Amino acid sequence: MSVTLATRQRVGIEKIWAYPGQTALDMTELADARDREHSYVLETLLVKERSVNPCWEDPVTIAVNAAKPMLSEEDRQSIEFLLVGTESSPDQGKPISTFVHRFLDLPPTCRNFETKHACYSGTSALMTAVHWVASGVAGDAKALVIATDQSRMHLGSPWEFVMGTGAVALLISNKPKVIEFELETNGYWTKEVGDTFRPTSKIEAGNTENSVYCYLEALEGAYDHFLAKAGDTDMNTDFKAHLYHVPFGGMVFRAHRTLLRRTRPVKKKEAQANFDAKVLPGLSHNSRFGGTYSASTFLALMGMVDNNPDLEAGDHLSIFSYGSGSCSEFYRVHLCPEAKDVVAQANLGGLLDNRQKISVAEYEAIENERTGYIDVGTYVPPTDGINNLYKNQYEGKNLLVLKNLDGFFRNYDWS
User: Fold this and answer.
1) Is residue 245 flagged as an active site residue?
2) How far is CA 189 from CA 90, 107, 262, 296, 348, in A?
3) Which residue in 132, 134, 287, 292 could disulfide with 11, CB within 3.0 to 4.6 Å?
4) C-alpha distances out from residue 183 to 41, 180, 302, Å
């Protein structure tokens, strides 16, 4: 007999926060520089801007900067499990979760580790944390999950328009205030494929066309597993909104249309109207970050709560996560009464607005400088230039930054 929502241990996201970095590159300016039509980035890819990490930011700093504003002292003392999902770790052995643990001042009685599975990394961390809380073995202790990633350099390549950076922090507890999980119906699916991968510390490679089909195959596989557990479910009537992994917005439309067609034939115009109503509001923040890998589904959650006025407490949402290689998960969650207020506290739209605009030339200079210090043992990030970016956006703001590399050890400090 399956456990009902009324009798099982409640578990979900109590708090959520995000960090979009401090820079914004206008994608129409990049399109002009690469001789591409504006419609390609704005209408096909559904990307308006992208964040770029300067050399004093990395997956460690953005993870800490995402979680620090969210956590009260009481929260920090209650955390006994820290999981950081990333495919962008700067170290092949030492998990970045150790740095995150230190700079968030979490208690020493805390498990921590880093998860890696491409864009599924954050969801793999999340589901591990959620099941741990749901088990009740730690009483009222909480888990902190952070998805943090940055792209590699892709100057002049087709991938360039879907790259980005960002981090999302999730506080998981038995007192959910954003969403509550329905773990007994989670569907998952896995298959070894070679769609995208990072074979070295500097290269992000793969087959973009193959990746699209791998994503869609994994979506249907995970959805079939969900249906086997949940029984008859109609995508159009049983969910108020849908959230997907977002490599770029155009891929999300293809995914949504694929599932709508599982019930009956759907013309493109009808699928577009359904997408606009039940998916597009969730892409509002993603469209300003660029590609954020495992953080993208959680940014879609924040966007949906922030920008869909029709959402109400108790509404069912579907969430789909995909990671190249591959693994995927399709699951159902319930919106909590406090969700809108909790997500609003993160002020993600305001943080995005506050970023400093950078030119294409500045973006290219950052990418070249950042790629140049990968695998270097001694390095001090230059904080001059880029139109006074450090002084304008970091100095005195108490953000974590990379100070230097000394014998390969990474030294961080507060700005």
Assistant:
1) yes
2) 29, 36, 17, 19, 32
3) 134
4) 36, 9, 21
Residues 241, 243, 248, 252: what is their CA dihedral angle, to the nearest 10 degrees? -60
Strands 409-414 and 187-190 turn out to be unpaired
Distance CA 27, CA 47 (A): 7
Question: 139 φ, ψ to 5°?
Answer: 65, -125
- Which of these is catalytic: 55, 57, 117, 119? 119
Contacts of 397 (CB under 8 A, 6+ apart): 415
CA distance 409 to 412: 10
User: pLDDT tens-digit profile of 160-186?
Assistant: 999 999 999 999 999 999 999 999 999
Maximum C-alpha span of the chain? 63
Instruction: Give the integer Cα–Cα distance in Å for 123 and 117.
Output: 9
Residue type (1 letter), 267: K
Residue of 57, 87, 114, 367 marked active site: 87
CA distances from 99 to 10, 102, 268 (A): 30, 5, 47
Q: What backbone phi and psi angles, to 5 degrees, belong to 220?
A: -70, -35
Give the Cα separation of 211 and 348 in Å (integer): 30
Amino acid at 184: E
Among residues 348, 285, 288, the alpha carbon closest in space to that of 23 is found at: 288
* Assigned token pair, 320: 């789909």
pTM flag (> 0.85): yes
- Which domains occur in the chain, in start order? 12-180+347-414 (3.40.47.10), 181-339 (3.40.47.10)
**For 300-355, what is each residue's pLDDT tens digit?**
999 999 999 999 999 999 999 999 999 999 999 999 999 999 999 999 999 999 99
| Residue 105 tokens, joined | 């001042």
Cis status of the peptide bond prior to 326, with omega within 30 of 0: yes
Q: Is 110 a catalytic residue?
A: no
Rounded to whole angstroms, the Cα distance separating 84 from 145 reads 6
Residue whose C-alpha is closest to residue 341's, from 313, 317, 322: 313
Contact 364, 34 (CB under 8 A): no
408 phi-psi bin (left φ>0, alpha ψ -120 to 50, beta other): left
Rounded to 5 degrees, what are φ and ψ at 50? -145, 145
The neighbouring-strand residues paired with 81 are 111, 143
Which of 101, 242, 245, 285 is an active site residue? 245
